[in-house]
Amino acid sequence: MLSPLKPVLGKAAELLAKQLEIHTVGDLVRHYPRRYVDRGKLTDIAGLELGEHATIIALVEKTTMRDMRNRRGTMLQVVLRDEKGATLDATFFNGHKVKHFIHPGVRAVFSGKVGVFNKKLQLTHPQFDPLDEADEIRPFISVYPATGKITSQEIARCVRQVLDVLDGGGRVEVTDPLPGSLRQREGLAELGRALRRIHVPESEADYHAARNRLVWDEALGVQLALALRRQAAVSKPAAACPPRRGALLDAFDARLPFALTPGQQEVGAEIAADLALRHPMNRLVQGDVGAGKTVIALRAMLQAVDAGRQAAMLAPTETLAAQHARSLRTMLGPLAQAGELGAAEHATSITLLTGSLGAKAKRKALLDAQSGEAGIVVGTHALIQDRVGFAELGLVVVDEQHRFGVEQRDALRGRGGDLAPHMLVMTATPIPRTVAMTVYGDLQISSLRELPEGRSPISTTVVPLAEKPSWFASIWRRVREEVAAGHQAYVVCPRVGDVDPQDLIDTEDPDIGADSDDGGARRPPMAVLEVAPKLVEGPLEGLRIAILHGKMPPDEKDAVMRAFERHELDVLVATTVIEVGVDVPNATAMVILDADRFGLSQLHQLRGRVGRGSAPGVCLLVTDMPAATAARERLDAVAGTTDGFVLAQLDLELRREGDVLGSMQSGRRSGLRLLSLLKHAEIIAKAQVYAGDIVEQDPGLVRHPGLFALVGETVGDEERAAYLDKV
Ligand code: ADP
Ligand code: MG
Fold this sequence. Notes:
By secondary structure, the protein is α/β, with parallel strands linked by helices. Mean pLDDT is 85; it is low at 500-520 and 665-669.
C-alpha cells in the first residue's frame, strides 16, 4: 500500500500528489468518494420543477462566454441536452475557470438548485462531474473530493486503474491487516474487496458492507493507538502513594463539615487504590458542575502528601487558581498552616504560583516547590511553562480538563523526573461515551452521577428580546429582587469591550464565540465595559456592582473576586472568566446577555455558578435571535434540561465532530475519514475490546505488521513510535 503511484499512473500521479497530497497506492485507495450518483434516481430535464435540488446527466450542446454585467469576470452560458432530447440552460460564474471542463460534446452529471431566468428554468452554477464511457454502464457514479485542476472522474479513472492492478495481484498487494478471526466474527468483508466496493459499488448493500468494513479499520486503528498509549503510560514507574492511617488525610476527613456522597466515596476509593500502585494513575473524573470534585481532588492530594510527595493542582485561569488556593486553605484550616503558629500535627502548606506573581513572590513560590516546603502547589499553565522544579512531585491534578489539550497533559506527565507523577484530570463537561472512548481513551474514567443533597433547583428561562423587548426591564427587576433577598447575581457578556479591537476577546477565554453562528452582519456582542456603566446608572442603580474580566491586572481580579465572595458586592458583570469553578453559594441569579453567542456546554457551565447554596437559582438566557432559528433551539435545549450528559451529547451532535476526533491527531493529514462518534458507537466499543486483547498478547505488534501499519496510518508514524519506544 505504500508503493508509489507513478509506475501505475504515470503523469496523473504528479497531479494527484500536487493537488491532493495523494502519494501512495494506499493514499489513493483511501481517498473515498464523497457521494454517489444513483443512476436510477436521476431526473429527466422534462420533469424538473422550480426550486428542487436536481441531479441530471446531460450533454453540453453549446457554450457562450459573456462578460458579467455588474462585476468583473466572465460567465459561461451553457445549453444542456439530455438523452430524451429536452434542453436546459445553465450558467457558470467563473467562466474562464470552467471552460476547460465544459465544452460541447462533454457529458457530465450536473447538480444544483433549479431556478428561473428569463422565464425559463435554469441551473445556476451547478456542481458538475464530467463522465467518461466507463461510467455509463455502472449503476452508481462515484463523486470524489476534487479540485479545480483535477476532476472527480479523472480521480475515479486513476482509482480504477490502481484497483485493477491490485486485483491482478501485480506489483502491489493488499494484505488485510485485520486478523481473520476478527473479520469472521464481525462478518467483515476482506480489505481488497471492501476497497473495490467503496469505489465502485454495484448496489447499495455493497456500498454499506464496504463502508462498514473500512470504518472498522479506523476504529481499530484508533483503539490500538490508545491501547499502546495506555501501555506506554503504565510501563513508566511512579512513586507509590499508599494511604497512611492517622495522618493528614484522616485528620482532614475528621473535620469535613459534610458527609461524602456515595459517589464521592466510590470515586475516592478508586483513586486511593490507583495512587498506591507503582505505575502512574491516569484517571479522569467527570461530574457535573457542583458535583463536588474539589474535595475529591484535595483528598487525593493529601494522600500524596501523606506518602511524602508533593501535589500540583492546575487551573485554567488565574482567577480560578487563586480561588482554589483560597478554598483549599479554608477547607484545610490549621492543616494547611505548616510552619505557622497553631499549625496542626501533620500539617502541610499550600503555595499559589501563577504567571503574574511579582518577581519576589514568584521566587519564593518556586523555592517552596523546589525545596519541598510546599506540599500542595496551585497554579495555572505557568506551572508548565516556567519549568518549575518540584522536590518530589507525586500527583498532578488538572481541573476543568476541557481547557487543556492532550499535549499539555503529556507535558505535565514529563514533570516527575525519573518517576512519572500520578495524574488526575477533572472535568465538569460530561463526556459522551464515544468521546470518552476516543479522545480520552488513554484515561480511566470515574463518574460522579449525583449532586450532594440539599441543592436547590435552577430554573432557566430564555428571554427572547426579538419577540418580547419589554422583558429586558424585567430582567433587572428580577436581579433587584434577588439582591433584596440578600443574594448576589452575575451578569455575563461575551465581550470585554473596546480597549482596542485586538482586545475584544478575553484572552483567558480561548473558546469564546467558537461555535456562535455569527453571520458577520450582526452588531458586536454585548461588552462588560459598556453594559456595566449602563446598569450602574440605570436599572441597577444603588447596588454594589463590579466588573471582572481577563484583561484586568491579576491582583485587581483577585480583589474583586474576594469582595464578591465576602458579599461586599451584589452584582458582578463579567466575561466567561467566571465560567469554570467559581464557587459563591450565595449567588442565585445568572443573567447571560447575548446567550446565543456561547456554546451549549459553556452555557451549562455558566449556569452552574448559581444554585450552589440552599436558595434556588435562576438563569436567564437573553437573546435577540428570532424564534425558530438554530441558535434559539440551542438555548431552548439548555433551558429544557439541567442534565449535563444530555447537553454534552447534543453539543457533540451540533459541533463538527471532525474537530473532536481531530484533536487526537496533531496537525497532520487525518487518517480518519469515515469514523463518526455519533454513528459508530457500537463499533468503537467493540474495537476497544479487540485492541486491548491484541496489545496485551502482542505488546509491540510484532506479530501483527498489518495492524502496526494501520496505527501509523491512523495517528502518524511519529506518535506510533512514541508509544512503542516505551515498551
Ligand atoms: P465542582 O464539582 O463543580 O468542582 P465543588 O467541588 O466546587 O464542585 O463543590 C460544590 C460545592 O459543594 C462546594 O461548596 C463544596 O464544598 C460542596 N460539597 C462538596 N461535596 C459535598 C457533600 N458531599 N455534601 C455537601 N456539600 C458538598
Ligand atoms: Mg470545580
